[in-house]
Amino acid sequence: GLCGLGLLRIGYAEAVKRLADLLADPEPQVRSFAALGLGNTGREDAALLLRFKLSVGDPELDVLSECMAAFSRLDPVEAVPVLARFLEREDRDLRQAAAFALGETRQAAAFTTLQRQWIGERSAEVRRAILIAAAGLRRPEAIDWLIARVAAERAESAAAAVEALAVFRTDAAVAARVLEAARSREEPAVRKAVDKGFPASP
């Protein structure tokens, strides 16, 4: 796996072919390295390989997670509908991985998909992943939605929304809105998340 990444790094002309072979290797870690390498090529044919791999599946979650992330980097527009299908799976870990990968696409359609999944999602872990992914999109509408979650959701979800928004702690405007939304929340979990994510300026 590391040799495959090395071939890519030195600009070997047939690196994508070698990585394609490794994507079918018996060892899961090698397949993960292959997906990582393909995601760093910037090539359309590499994106097609990853799309195919996601279609046929893999028994290892780590391999699928790496394929999702790599495909999101290479083809963020096409990745949204492909990843959305994984949000329909019964496997909680797959849904969580798909949510994280959607956050890497920075696409408006990804936000719509995450927002729709939030409504019916029952797993606390996946709901947390949706919040983190929404923050990762760095889109104004996603930030607005997250701040609304701080104000309106139950304590656990509100605290998770604050934690997700902490990536914007250096953005004074966003930070002020988060603190305003959390002002009326007295739950310990929410207060702790605010204190950790948005510490008072010295």
Overall description:
By secondary structure, the chain is mainly α. It is 74% helix and 0% strand.
Based on helices, strands and strand pairing, what is the structural class?
mainly alpha
Annotation, overall tally of beta strands: 0
String of helices and strands: HHHHHHHHHHHHH
Helix content: over 70%
- Name the overall outline: elongated
Average of pLDDT? 95
Name the descriptors.
202 residues, mainly alpha, 13 helices, 74% helix, elongated
SSE layout and pairings?
Elements: H1 2-9, H2 15-22, H3 28-39, H4 44-56, H5 61-74, H6 76-86, H7 92-103, H8 108-120, H9 124-137, H10 140-152, H11 155-165, H12 172-182, H13 188-197
What's the quick description here?
The protein is mainly alpha-helical and 202 residues long.
